[in-house]
Write a structure and sequence with these properties.
This protein is mainly alpha-helical and 106 residues long. 70% of the residues lie in helices and 0% in strands.
Amino acid sequence: MSKNKNPLKDLDLFLKQQAASFVSPTPLSERIAANPAQEINGDKPEELIHQLIQLAQTDREKFLDLIIRAAENDPSPENTMLINTALYLKSGANWKEAVRQYWQNK
């Protein structure tokens, strides 16, 4: 191998060229501005968020159960992680057993 050859520099140049050829995603702020607020069951999203905040402050366990129920409808890795996180928050020190029992019952 030649002393003047630098594979890291070549790799860096290649990656920069590849990155320049990718299409830049639309910024989230533009996507939100482009989509007007949709109504969910007659409520605007802001009202729904306010209701969820109130539920989280008044009945934390019911709030976490609601998150689990909502996440169960779409069996994706992200929702599995969300369910496990809610079970962790709900169960405290006994979270491992709670997660184990939840998935055994499914």
